[in-house]
Amino acid sequence: MVTATRGRPRSFDRDAALDKAIRLFWRRGYEATSVRDLTEELGIGAPSLYSAFGDKQQLFTEALRVYDERYGGFIDRALADEPTAKGAAARVFAEAPERYTRRDLPTGCLIVSGDAGTASTEIIEHLRRIRDSKVDAFAAKIRADIDAGRLPAGIDPRALGRYTMSALTGLAQAARDGVTRAELDRVAEIALRAWP
Amino acid sequence: MVTATRGRPRSFDRDAALDKAIRLFWRRGYEATSVRDLTEELGIGAPSLYSAFGDKQQLFTEALRVYDERYGGFIDRALADEPTAKGAAARVFAEAPERYTRRDLPTGCLIVSGDAGTASTEIIEHLRRIRDSKVDAFAAKIRADIDAGRLPAGIDPRALGRYTMSALTGLAQAARDGVTRAELDRVAEIALRAWP
DNA sequence: CCAATTTTATAGCGATCGATAGAAAAGGTG
DNA sequence: CACCTTTTCTATCGATCGCTATAAAATTGG
Fold first, then answer.
1. What's A109's DSSP letter?
2. Which of A138, B141, B154, B187 has the greatest number of beta carbons closer than 10 A?
């Protein structure tokens, strides 16, 4: 879309700047990332940032949305592609260690730790809702497998879904603590063994 | 120790004030807890706080130490009391849900989330070291069980220890997200099944 | 009572926070 | 060219951050 508009043209690539903001929020979290940090990293002045992205909270919200599809989407893809819940869990645990320790990208997961140390209840609630939605998605796929007889009837879909996302949270946190990809691979392999 | 000292006596109970500080740091983390929050919660002025506890970082360090023995010590106790590593893991997973959702106490764990959103590398390193030490402790007990033939020789002590603490981290984070004690109980039960 | 000592309350320090006012700059449109 | 619109840069704003100087209050020792 190259709609010719009047006025002075923007001097920076909005999407490239957003990606830099994503990585900064990813690395430090919402609260520890100051507007000054952002303007320096993005190479633009504060008024340009506010004009292009609204305020800090709006920028974070947009960064979250793009992060979820650009960097964090492997969970949703596993749930969509794999035919069974356990297959999705196996794939997620197989991919997570690499996802959480990528070179030239921050460690861990923005959705897991982005709201850490934040006073804003809005930010916390927003991230909690995203996290809960992943538990719901896993629980739904587990329930479908139980109904189809692919999983024993005795298990609790919500608890198993919560366990899976909870174990991923632990992996992401361990990655932030500097645990290597190789060790995370072994931890993830153990985590999968809890599945029936 | 009631050594009669000269000068105006302290008007507050230092240990009671420290406990209030622990709970405040526990609830909000190091960075999101301001000195003003502390002085209001503890009911003392800023100079009294600095005189009694040093600066904010020293107060946090002392709060961490006391928290670890007063509220977080159930992991060390399980490792010390239970004869086997798996017994310690079973007990830790059995106790954690209640520990992370106590009434009249903040949810989750200070050592897991206290450094969240903090810029200070000192604080982050300090907490990472405490977390790593628990992994070491678990790994050592696992290794002892392997040597004694109580666990199969094929397993990786460090990975299994890391998994256990990582799963606990996930439970603590879930508790912070408002997951109920009952659901955490079921999640913890699943987490234990990963153990050989 | 009068010093000496320690803690208290009051007030404010410089730095940084998120956010913005105002004017200059850079483009299209006539 | 002049005019309109939008973005840019510069320079802040009030609020809050961690922290402290100063002096009054409260105790012990003489």
1. -
2. B187
CA–CA dist B2, A107 (Å, integer): 51
Gap between the Cα atoms of A70 and B77, Å rounded: 43
| Best CA proximity match to A135, nearest among A161, A96, A156, A167 | A161
Fold classified for B72-192: Tetracycline Repressor; domain 2 (1.10.357)
Are A142 and A160 a contacting pair, CB within 8 Å? yes
Q: Give the type of residue at A161.
A: G
Whole-angstrom Cα distance, residue B67 to residue B129? 15
CA distances (Å), A4 to each of A1, A51, A166, in order? Answer: 9, 18, 48
User: What is the sign, positive or negative, of the torsion defined by CA atoms of B61, B62, B65, B66?
Assistant: negative
Query: How buried is B30 (Cβ within 10 angstroms: 0-12 exposed, 13-18 middle, 19+ buried)?
Result: buried
- Confidence grade of residue A7 (pLDDT, cut at 50, 70, 90): confident
Check if residue B49 sits with its Cβ under 7 angstroms from strand C.
no
Q: Of B29, B156, B183, which has the smallest distance from its Cβ to A186's Cβ?
A: B156
pLDDT digits (tens, 9 = 90+) for A96-109: 999 999 999 999 99
Tokens of A167: 């174990």
Q: Helices B157-176 & B85-99, crossing angle to 10 degrees?
A: 10
Confidence label for B71 from pLDDT (cuts 50, 70 and 90): very high
Contact across the interface for B118 and A32, Cβ inside 8 Å: yes
Cα–Cα nearest to A112, from B52, B182, B174: B174
Q: How close, in Å, is residue A7 to chain B by CA atoms?
A: 39
Architecture of domain A71-192: Orthogonal Bundle (1.10)
Q: In CATH, which of 3.40.50.300, 1.10.10.10, 1.10.860.10, 1.10.10.60 is domain A14-63?
A: 1.10.10.60
Task: Write out chain A residues lying below 8 Å of B167, CB-based.
Answer: 166-167, 170, 191
